[in-house]
């Protein structure tokens, strides 16, 4: 099959995972293409512009130890750094940083654009190009029941979500194996690749719930990757959604900060990256603030909890979740008279 372009590796999605995957492949000397719907929103921190925290801070450190970017970029653009759990043993100490949301994506793009062997492409990936193993003819795109896919694809399905990967291998009754040859773009171009890595995150068949409203989207105001999501379904890959929660945006000029308890950053910030000697904004950190709910707050939430997507039936969520909403805390912990709220830059 003739392709419009050919790469060793094609990475679909330029969030945290996609940036790390593309950089790792390019550093190995592989000709790599990173596809994103909008090059101006590479590594956009769409929810809370924080990195790290309990467990997640350890993960960022591990990524850094493997040569990843996230820790170094955070050290360059972080505006508040705190080492959590220092009252306990060192095994549970967790670094956390609030980042300058705009500076993070600009810095990440700068690093990616300076990397040899890495090309950034603005385009929507609509389909995978798949071939039966041992067959020189292309079986089709995704219009068949899938056999196992011999690729390094990380498959995620989301809707204000992160995703769960399918069980590998995906078998057909005949146990026929198929191989990913590349990707097809929405405009009809085809890109060949020795490996396709899919890191679409919340965009893959994304669905947003905002109060009593719900609508397809990757992030607020940005389209979901519906074509690719449907293509993966046709391959027989099972997708599911895990709920995330996005906090409301508040105008700092409208807040009486004297009513809140100030939570400053550490006086001697701990960098995320082992390669960072000193974080960039060591002397100019921005404070966070802490508030507490009241019995009146709890009663107001109880009176309206039936309108929440979590309790109206719109979201059918099971098991632990990453971001518990305030109404979930009120329902699950009715004996608590107050809960903490954090105001973060």
Q: Widest sheet: strand order?
A: 6-2-1-11-10-7-8
- What is the CATH C level class of the largest domain, in words? Alpha Beta
What is the makeup of the main sheet? Answer: 7 strands, mixed
Please identify which CATH superfamily of the largest domain we are dealing with: FAD/NAD(P)-binding domain
Write up what this structure looks like.
- By secondary structure, the protein is an alpha+beta fold.
- The chain has helices at 16-27, 56-65, 70-77, 101-113, 226-234, 295-304, 309-312, 326-332, and strands at 5-12, 32-36, 50-52, 78-84, 94-99, 118-122, 125-132, 138-140, 161-163, 178-185, 190-198, 207-210, 213-216, 241-243, 261-263, 288-292, 340-343.
- The strands form 5 sheets. Strands 6-2-1-11-10-7-8 form a 7-stranded mixed β-sheet, sandwiched between helices. Strands 3-5-4 form a 3-stranded antiparallel β-sheet. It has a 3-stranded antiparallel β-sheet with strand order 15-16-17, with no helix packed on it.
- The longest helix has 13 residues, at 101-113.
- The N and C termini lie far apart (51 Å).
- The model is unreliable at 143-174 (pLDDT under 50).
Short structural description:
With 345 residues, this protein is of the alpha+beta class. It has helices spanning 16-27, 56-65, 70-77, 101-113, 226-234, 295-304, 309-312, 326-332, and strands spanning 5-12, 32-36, 50-52, 78-84, 94-99, 118-122, 125-132, 138-140, 161-163, 178-185, 190-198, 207-210, 213-216, 241-243, 261-263, 288-292, 340-343.
